[in-house]
Design brief:
The chain is α/β, with parallel strands linked by helices. The chain is about 45% helix and about 15% strand. It contains 18 helices and 14 strands. Helix 18 links the parallel strand 13 and strand 14. The longest helix has about 30 residues. The chain is globular. Bound molecules: nicotinamide-adenine-dinucleotide (NAD). The site of nicotinamide-adenine-dinucleotide has 27 residues, from helix 1 and helix 5.
């Protein structure tokens, strides 16, 4: 089968590469000519472990190609995936569907023969039907169906998540579309991956319901962490005690500075807006949106308090800029809240991230000093703040850190260090939900 993937970002590029690994002929299209040029030159424009090998192997086998024009590949395609961005619409919190609808119009003009148009982007309920209406209006004679196939991959483990998903969700309305989608995911049958066929609306809602649930779980443990600090309990033991209950599960019970990233912030907001549109309440999700914003903002106060109440003139080392490890994605990263607020309070910032420095630069204020290593960032710092839990930070010895720093304050927003080792190294530790033992 021939597939076209519109949008070669985190999702489009990974999906396209993985479908080509399954053996299909895939053309990945993107309007961003620089991205396509770099892919054709063998350079991967995002940081995603394993993606370079996967892309190179399938390009060499002639199953994967990259181009800015969609006309010829759409005409030959059995299925066209829309994997463009659906960011928050400026001003009102709804998902901005302009990229999805623009792509639909462009696709419509070039369709030929029966084709399934699949939304892989995260889109609100009703979008699939709107895509169908756009295609019908633009090209009334074309033979097509729409399908919804939300993507659940996580940046940092995207290839494994795509190749070994917990489930695949597909919204379809015709047997023909169902057959095409079943054929595309047949390679997963060997692992007995559940494939859930539903209606378009159900499939679209599953993605938001799942993401919002995870955001609720993270916020829940963050609130428990706050409570642990107040009552003198340890949030890790609380999480363990909760997570051993199989009805709850241990995942997503790690406390931190509040969720960020390309999905949870925008998807929780969009779900709230969908509920408003349909006259229903998702008050739990509303509260989580508010609480998470407050939490991210409050992390700066936590650093200032740990630094003795004032950071004016102090140098603060920030370790980790990306919203999570193993990605260079800066979208809604807690670092984007914390760093500008610390600078506004008079602090100087020495920052280091193993992958996201280039992405971070245009998003952070002038004056941040970007370092080439964690050791360089920490040297001469008054305060060190762990914002992202990259493994290379876990491996740093508190004693070495204490020796290199000018000051002795460590703010561990990811709880990656053993408090006893930090105390032994002579550092004052502020961490999350462990009733500040040091
Ligand atoms: N990033 C994730 O971890 C993740 C996971 C699951 C689902 N999603 C969803 O997948 C969708 C895509 O997310 P992403 O992170 O890959 O976005 P992204 O911003 O990394 O990539 C989107 C790409 O689409 C391109 N594009 C936009 N309009 C186009 C058009 N008309 N023709 C060709 N290319 C076009 C852009 O140039 C960009 O390269 C979103 O709806 C997102 O919510 C993302």
């Amino acid at each position: 089968m021939n597939l076209t993937v519109i949008g070669s970002g985190y999702v489009g590029l990974v999906s396209g590469a993985c479908f080509s690994e399954f053996g299909f002929n895939v053309t990945c299209v993107d309007k961003d000519a620089a991205k396509i040029d770099s892919l054709n030159a063998g350079a991967i424009p995002i940081y995603e472990p394993g993606l370079d090998d996967l892309v190179a192997r399938n390009m060499a086998a002639g199953r994967l190609k990259f181009q800015t024009e969609l006309a010829d590949s759409v005409a030959d395609a059995d299925a066209v995936f829309i994997a463009v961005g659906t960011p928050t619409r400026r001003g009102d919190g709804h998902a901005d569907l302009s990229y999805v609808y623009a792509a639909s119009e462009e696709i419509a003009a070039h369709l030929s023969g029966y084709t399934v148009i699949v939304t892989k982007s995260t889109v609100p309920v009703g979008t699939g039907r709107n895509v169908a209406a756009i295609i019908k209006k633009t090209n009334p004679d074309v033979d097509f169906d729409v399908a919804s196939n939300p993507e659940f991959l996580r940046e940092g483990s995207a290839i494994n998540d795509f190749m070994r998903p917990d489930r695949v969700v597909v919204g379809v309305e015709s047997d023909a579309a169902r057959d095409v989608m079943a054929a595309l995911y047949r390679p997963l049958n060997i692992r007995e991956t559940p494939i859930l066929f539903t209606t378009l609306e159900t499939s679209e809602l599953i993605k938001y319901a799942a993401n919002a649930f995870l955001a609720v779980k993270i916020s829940y443990i963050n609130q428990m962490a706050d409570l642990c600090e107040a009552v003198g309990a340890d949030v890790h033991d609380v999480a363990k005690g909760m997570g051993l209950d199989q009805r709850i599960g241990a995942k997503f019970l790690h406390p931190g500075p509040g969720y960020g990233g390309s999905c949870f912030p925008k998807d929780t907001l969009a779900l709230v807006k969908t509920a408003e549109d349909f006259g229903r309440d998702v008050t739990i999700v509303n509260d989580v949106v508010r609480y998470n914003a407050e939490r991210k903002a409050s992390m700066t106060d936590r650093v200032i308090t740990a630094a003795g109440g004032d950071v004016d003139g102090k140098t603060i080392a920030i370790l980790g800029l990306a919203f999570k490890p193993e990605t260079d994605d800066m979208r809604d990263s807690p670092a984007l809240d914390i760093i500008p607020r610390l600078m506004a309070a008079g602090a100087g910032i020495s920052a280091y991230d193993p992958a996201a420095m280039e992405q971070a630069r245009p998003l952070l204020p002038e004056g941040v000093s970007y370092c080439t290593s964690a050791a360089e960032a920490v040297s001469s710092a008054d305060v060190t703040v762990i914002v992202t839990e990259w493994n290379e930070f876990r491996a740093m010895s508190p004693a070495d850190m204490a020796g290199a720093m000018r000051g002795n304050v460590l703010v561990d927003l990811r709880n990656i260090y053993d408090p006893a080792a930090v105390m032994k190294a002579g550092l004052n530790l502020s961490n999350i939900g462990r009733s500040q033992q040091v």
